[in-house]
Each structure stands twice: as structure tokens, then as C-alpha cells.
Request: fold
Amino acid sequence: MTSLQELVRPELRGQTPYGAPQLDVPVALNTNESSYPVPQVVVEQIARDVAGVASSLNRYPDREFARLRELLAGYLRRTTGAPVTAQQIWAANGSNEVLQHIVQAFGGAGRTALGFTPSYSMHPLISERNGTTWIDGLRDADPAKFDLDGDLAVEQTRAHDPEVIFLCSPNNPTGTALDLSIVRRVYDATDRAIVVVDEAYTEFSRAGTPSALSLLPGRDRLVVSRTMSKAFAFAGARLGYLAAAPEFTQLLRLVRLPYHLSTVTQAVACAALEHTDTMLAMVDKIKTTRDDLLAGCAALGLQPVPSDANFVLVGGFDDAAATWQALLDRGVLVRDVGIPHHLRITAGTPEENDTALRALRAVLEKELTNE
Ligand SMILES: *Cc1c(COP(=O)(O)O)cnc(C)c1O
Reply:
């Protein structure tokens, strides 16, 4: 008998699946979800609209999700001023699936994808799982610096000449947004790479931080991906999307499975988009909480990294893994992203923030007395 391990595709042998812990803890600040529930007015609209389509579930959904694309384009136009049309929009079950569609269409065997590490862990995973060779680029020659160095990004783009480049702005897990000049320079450094700007956290950016959507006109290889998981407080709905040239979204239709967005998903997402202001009402509060978390960590003598997102990367831990466990023992789940001496903490409610900071203080004091 041949074992299944031997039968599976060679690149999958011995791999482990994505698995951020889903633990039942009092304070979960590990996956950058919103701590605020979906507002009641939207809950009621969702219930009505799902009931409205339930009897038609005998039919396949609108394969072109036309209404959803119109609403998403309208949201982007209204919030960024970029002249985005419905033909430029693509959507899928979470932006992870959107990113996978890009890699399926433009990556694959014999092709390479370049990213600048540390960044979103799914960029290499999605690339490699789809047969694309991943290149771990550097953000800065000094590994202690987390902002992307434009000269170095251009240099690495020219040296590796990849088919796909992932930029992430604001960057997860380090927190800061990219200057658009870097996006422009990376784009101009290659004439064949698809340049993906993952803007999952863009709604949390500090004032004056522009979206790469404004760069789309005239740049057919540029893609800006977005999600409803973070600012829209809608992670459970699974709705991610992108904006790119109409010809680009046309090519993604070659790799999507037929009817990939269910009638229910489309109804739920459209209901939320009809209440955009209500859905985004907590964003300003979360930004304040994030800034408070940053200040609170600094006051504890830690080294928080400036953030344009709904989380803060915090440095200054002697042993990040031990601190992660000690916080979990106190009911606070944060993320150990594998950067030595750092932990990533999501900005929750002000109460969760206080609990997390109190737990941090207790853990740090205990470490001191143990020394
Ligand atoms: C959370 C996150 C996503 C969102 O993934 P979804 O599949 O839309 O939930 C995408 N990119 C980055 C960088 C993220 O942190």
C-alpha cells in the first residue's frame, strides 16, 4: 500500500495547513478581526434580503455578481475619488481567494512571485500551493527596519524579474502604509510583472495616506486588492475584491470556478454595502484605540511600531513566545508572527485594550521579579 503522504503532490508533502489558533478566550486579539458586532440595522437588512433570495436557491447565482460589482465600485469611487468602474472589479470568497485567482492566472509552474518579508504570510502560501516559486525579498538591508526601502525594492524587482509582485499597504504584520512613489517605482522597474497592492487595512490608515487605486489609470499590470473582513467588520461573510484593468478581471474569469460567489454571499455583501457608513462607523474609534494601544505599550517600555492598520506590532520582548503563552494564560490571545522579540496585537474595544495592557504589565513585572 502506498501511503497518502507519498501520493500527494510532492510540494505538499510534510506541509502544515494555515492555522491561526481559534481558541475560546475572553480577549481574542490575534487575527485582526473587528471586536464590534455587525450593527442591528444591517443584521435586519441581511435577514430580510437572505429570506428574499432563499426560494431562488434552486438556481445558480448570478455568475457575474453584477449588482455587487456596482456597489463595490461605487464604494471605492466615493471613498478614494478614483474613477473605478464595475468592469474593473473582481470579487471572491475573501481576498485570499482573490489573491489565489491572480496567482492561478499569472503565476504557476516555472514562474516566480516576489514579496518583501515580513509581510502577509498568505502571499507565499498561496503562491507555493499553486506551483509558483516564492522569492523572499528584503524590506530593508537592516532586518530591524520594517519600512520598505524603495531602492532595494526596485533592485530586487530587477534582479529576480518575477511574474508576480506582492506589496502590502498598510503592511501586515508591521503596520505602515507604502508611499505611492514606491508602488510607482516597483511598477516601472519591470515590464512584465503583475504588481499586487494588498490594501486589506487601508481604511485604518492615518490621515493623508493615499490608496494605490489612484495609480490604476494607464497601468494594466497593477492590481489593488481589498476586503470586507477588517474595516467592514465582516470577516465571517468572506468577501474580498480587487480593482484592476477590465482586461485583467476578464482573465480572472478563466480560473474562477463557475458560480464561485453564492447567492447568499452576494445578498449578504450587498446588504452590508447599502449600509456602508454604518458598517464603517467603528473605524475611527478603532484607530483611536490603536493609537491608545501604541501609547500604552510605549509607556510599558516596549517598542511599538507606528501603525496605519487595526493592529500594532510591538517589539521589546525578551522571549516573545513565552510572553505570548503568559498572555494566553491570562485570557489574552495575541499573535506571535515569528519576528524575534515582537508580538502583533489587534486593536479591540477600549475594554479589551485595557485588559490586554494590564495583562502585559503583569507579565512584564513577573518577568522582572523572576530575574
Ligand atoms: C486579513 C488580511 C486579508 C484578508 O483576507 P480575507 O480572505 O479577505 O479575510 C488580506 N490581506 C491581508 C494582508 C490581511 O491581513
In short: The chain has two domains: 21-38+278-370, 40-274.
